[in-house]
Write a structure and sequence with these properties.
The chain is mainly beta. The protein is built from four helices and 18 strands. It starts with 20 loop residues before the first strand and ends with a strand.
Length: 222
């Protein structure tokens, strides 16, 4: 079990070893793949398409894909059984973290197909996937979606429990909330990825939380 799962993010998980491209905890990478600019967020795994088509599979994490406007054909991203086809000039953010699967169009247009349904995403539109279906499609504030590319995490009235889950993806060790009431407190914050642990100070100062630091970068909030 320890080989297959890294609970504190201290080593690559077993599934990451089969990826063609991957990032470690806190790491971000930008690279060119098949003529497409790919920005990879933390703990992200990408594989080349099994059928040798022009595209990639995102199995875990978050990444952005930008296809140049002069490209002669589209580019396909596979995620959780869905296909995202970028039109020339499109830039798309794809997130697959646990059960949270979202596709956000940041520029141009892209087609999302899941089962028998296909939707065309315009700039500023996001689709969420749930199981075997496209669960919802709607406009979103793209600044928050795009923030990690610029070294920030932005939270807008989200429960502290959700915020901690996202923070934990970017730091070694783990932040654990030991108080169920505290976990439901709402958070409005902008956190620098270069100073990720300032979030702990924010929780202590804003909510009067007790902070206990433990070995292995484990922090208890209560």
């Amino acid at each position: 079990w320890l080989a297959a799962s890294s609970p504190l993010g201290l080593w690559p998980e077993l599934g990451a070893l089969g990826a063609d491209y991957r990032t470690a905890t806190g790491e971000r990478r930008e690279l060119e793949i098949q003529g497409v600019t790919v920005a990879m967020g933390t703990r992200t795994r990408l594989r080349r398409s099994d059928d040798h088509a022009r595209g990639l599979q995102l199995s875990q994490g978050e990444a952005q894909f930008a296809l140049p406007a002069w490209a002669r054909r589209g580019f396909e991203i596979q995620v959780e059984g869905a296909r995202v086809t970028l039109d020339p000039g499109a830039r798309v953010n794809v997130r697959c973290v646990g059960g949270d699967v979202r596709v956000t169009c940041l520029a141009g247009t892209a087609a999302l197909a899941r089962g028998a349904r296909t939707v065309v995403l315009q700039q500023g539109w996001q689709a969420r996937l749930d199981g075997a279906r496209i669960a919802s499609v709607g406009e979103v504030p793209t600044e928050r979606v795009d923030a990690w590319r610029h070294g920030w995490l932005m939270f807008d009235d989200q429960p502290l429990s959700e915020v901690v889950e996202e923070i934990n993806r970017y730091r070694t060790g783990r932040i654990v909330i030991a108080d169920s009431t505290l976990s439901q407190r709402r958070v409005q914050a902008r956190i620098s990825l270069q100073r990720i642990d300032t979030f702990i100070d924010l929780v202590r100062d804003a909510y009067g939380a007790r902070v206990v630091s433990m070995p292995g970068d484990v922090v208890l909030l209560g």
